[in-house]
Hints:
Elements: E1 5-9, E2 16-17, E3 22-25, E4 36-37, E5 42-46, H1 49-56, E6 63-65, E7 75-80, E8 86-92, E9 109-111, E10 126-128, H2 146-152, H3 170-176
Parallel strand pairs: 5-6
Antiparallel strand pairs: 1-5, 2-4, 3-7, 7-8, 9-10
Amino acid sequence: DDFEFIEFFNAGQSALELAGVRFQAGINFTFPQEAILPAGDYLLLIRNREAFEARYGASSVAFYEYSGRLSNDGEALRIIDAGDNPILDFTYNDQEPWATAADGEGASLVLVDPAGIPDHGDPANWTASRTSGGSPGTAEAGGITYAAWASLNEVKGEPGDDDDGDNISNYLEFLFGSRPN
C-alpha cells in the first residue's frame, strides 16, 4: 500500500488551477492553493514519499502526498472542485471486466487513451500497465507489436497458445498487459 499513487494528466490546451479541488470519496486529499497542472503534463498523488522514491526514484513530476489508501477491491472515487461541483465521479474494480492483472500482480490500472478524455467508469477504457508497478508521471509504453512483446517476454508458443497454462492465450496476455509466464 505504501507504493500507491494516483496519476493526473492534463489532456487540455491550458493549465488547470487545482486549488481547493479535493476527493470527496476514496482517499483524503485537497489540492493546495499553488497547485497547477500545465497542459500536457502529469501530476502525482503518492501515499508514501519514501516508499515511492525507493521503488521509482526521485520524481521530476510535481507530486503531493495523501492520506488514507485506495481499496484493493475497487471503490468509488469522487473528485469535486472548491465549490463542491463534481469533476470526476466513477467506480473502479479489480474483477472482470476490469483489468485483473492490476489486482496485486505488479501492474497498475491505467487509462488506455487518457488524452481522449474517456469515461473513467467504463472498464473498457482501462488496462493493466505493461510495466510492473506502472510508469508514474510518464505515458504508458505503447506502440509495441505482438512480436516485440513476445520476444521481450520470451514467449515460446504461437499467439493462440497458452505458455503459462492459465487458460489465457498468449495474444490475450499481450492485449491485457498481463504476464505470459
